[in-house]
Design brief:
alpha+beta, VC0802-like, Alpha-Beta Plaits, 2 domains, 31% helix, elongated
Length: 129
């Protein structure tokens, strides 16, 4: 587990916009570790953790007029097996640590998976997990 920077970007909710955005990062050799996209009628909010957050922020600024924010999160590695997320969430609940959001990526069965945890109590969550 480690602290990480989450980058949130608002994109137009139109076909191809996410593809172009991801291609833009890929051309700059920025790897997306975990990603979540929540949509509204006109906008999509992309939350992601990347391997080079400073380079990503610079690239996004050069990409055009996009609304962008950076947030501290925890990148938690869990075994990719039944109940692993339930156990981690249970530890946070036992200490009354609220989870504002969570998303992740999956790996092969038996391997590791990552979840991204956003909480107002990041220090406490880090100690618990």
């Amino acid at each position: 587990m480690r602290k990480a920077k989450q980058i949130s970007v608002s994109l137009e909710n139109k076909p191809g916009r996410l593809a172009r955005f991801c291609q833009y990062l890929a051309k700059r050799k920025i790897n997306i570790i975990a990603i979540s996209v929540a949509e509204t009628t006109e906008q999509g909010v992309v939350r992601m953790v990347v391997d080079k957050p400073s380079a990503a922020l610079k690239a996004i600024a050069e990409c055009g007029p996009l609304t962008c924010a950076e947030t501290d999160v925890l990148l938690v590695d869990l075994p990719n097996k039944v109940g692993a997320l339930a156990k981690a969430a249970g530890k946070l609940a036992a200490r009354k640590i609220n989870v504002s959001f969570v998303y992740g990526s999956t790996g092969d069965g038996g391997g590791k998976t990552y979840i991204v945890v956003g909480t107002p109590n990041i220090g406490s969550a880090e100690r618990v997990l």
